[in-house]
Amino acid sequence: MTDNEILQLIKAKDDDAMEFLIKKHSPIVKKEIRTMYIIGAETEDLYQEGMIGLFKAIRDFEPDKGAIFSTFATMCVKNQVKSAVTAANRKKHQPLNQYISIYASIDEDGQDNEDLFLDDGVKSNPEKRIVAKENENELMNTIKEKLSKLEIQVLNHYLEGLSYADIGERLDKSEKSVNNALQRIRKKLSK
């Protein structure tokens, strides 16, 4: 059967035809993603974007316009993957792609007890490691300066995933006191 005949079956709600056409043209997706990269994503994420493009091609293809399905599918896959890469590389995604973890705990005496690194590349690059450590120290110093001893304790327990009741029980405080402390922490750290 030709792609156009298979597409007619798909329009008639034949799921097997849909599955067959997707499998037949999935090499297009693999070909288009092999040179693409998204920071913080895996190849599988790009593959999924390509498959979305292939699905859109199947959905939107009109044989009476004189195009060949494989050409149309290639363009749809390229456009979908390119859009995903472009969107991922926008500056608005930098906080997600280059973050510093807030899950390091701070001891009772205000000392941090865990190294914070941006990513594995930082660990192996001495210059980036020094810069990351300086950024980490600056962040931790800011937190220590702005938060009281109680707020640091509440923050540590909160980041451990404890409920307000459990935090209150550990610190011998009411849930309302814990809630108030967390509100103050959010307000102080947002500035």
Helices, strands, pairings?
Elements: H1 3-11, H2 15-33, H3 43-60, H4 69-88, H5 94-97, H6 120-124, H7 126-146, H8 149-159, H9 164-171, H10 175-190
Helix pairs in contact: 1-2, 2-3, 2-4, 3-4, 8-9, 8-10, 9-10
Walk me through this protein's architecture:
The protein has 191 residues and is an all-alpha fold. It is 69% helix and 0% strand. The protein has helices at residues 3-11, 15-33, 43-60, 69-88, 94-97, 120-124, 126-146, 149-159, 164-171, 175-190. Helix 2 packs across helix 3 (43-60), helix 8 (149-159) crosses helix 10 and helix 9 packs across helix 10 (175-190). The longest helix is centred in the last third of the chain and has 21 residues, at 126-146. It is elongated. The N and C termini lie far apart (64 Å). The relative contact order is 0.07.
